[in-house]
Amino acid sequence: MLNLKKQNLIYFTAFLILLVLAGFVSASGAETETNNPPAIEFDPALPWLNVSRPLTLDDLKGKVVILDFWTYGCINCIHVLEDLKRLKHKYGDQIAIIGVHTPKFDNEKNIDTLRRIVVRYDVDHPVVNDVESRLGRLYGMRAWPTQYVIDPEGGVLGKVVGEDNYEIFDKTISKLLKKHAAIIDKTPLPIALEKEKLEKSLLAAPGKIAVSDQYVAISDTLHHRIILATHDGKI
Question: Among residues 191, 194, 161, 14, which one has the least CA distance to residue 80?
């Protein structure tokens, strides 16, 4: 129980920090304006997934941005993906969710492996592979997952760490959209989903296989089906 209370206190403190930095409330509870530090430009040499070209901060101006620092070997990071989908569904192109993949182990740096993970978990927002975690260090990221919020003017408001932060983001995004209504840009980002490249393939992110004396069954995850074939390959 003590650990749970401590965890809730951490989340609540993170929420207050985010609101204070966002300029919604001061330590005394009054509304205030703040000069937030500018967001850090993406290294143009880093590889991207789910986009037709690398993104820059100029592409994100006029949107509320969530930078999601994650690594695919972190189960907590995978859990956060559902919250990010909910936010994208609610706010559409008024917000931009950018996955910043910061590998923990050398094998996680491989872009082809990351591509398969993005497809398997149906990640539909842009992902940049911060191969040496340089961007993560510049932002001061110390744990997975960590999300930073950038306002429509390009200022970094603050961060939250861990899971179950949907309500924090929902409230913060709503206030930011009202505060910056005059400059909100609803132009879609140049999305080119990796999973669409697999539409014509026989299998897309196969998950498991089961074999009997007569058949082979393969779960074809992203095609939402099970392939049932005989041992000589007839489907």
Answer: 161
Q: How does strand 48-49 pair with strand 127-129? A: antiparallel
pLDDT at 5 over 70: no
With cut-offs at 50, 70 and 90, classify the pLDDT of residue 120. Answer: confident
Widest distance between CA atoms in the chain:
73
- For β-strands 206-211 and 215-220, DSSP reports them as antiparallel
Indicate the CATH number for domain 34-183.
3.40.30.10
Q: Which residues contact 162 (CB under 8 A, 6 or more apart)?
A: 7, 10, 11, 76, 143, 145
DSSP notation for 53-116: S---HHHHTTSEEEEEEE-TT-HHHHHHHHHHHHHHHHHGGGEEEEEEE--SSGGGG-HHHHHH
The domain locations on the chain are 34-183, 202-230
**Beta-strand pair 64-70/95-101:** parallel
Q: What pLDDT score was predicted for residue 93?
A: 98
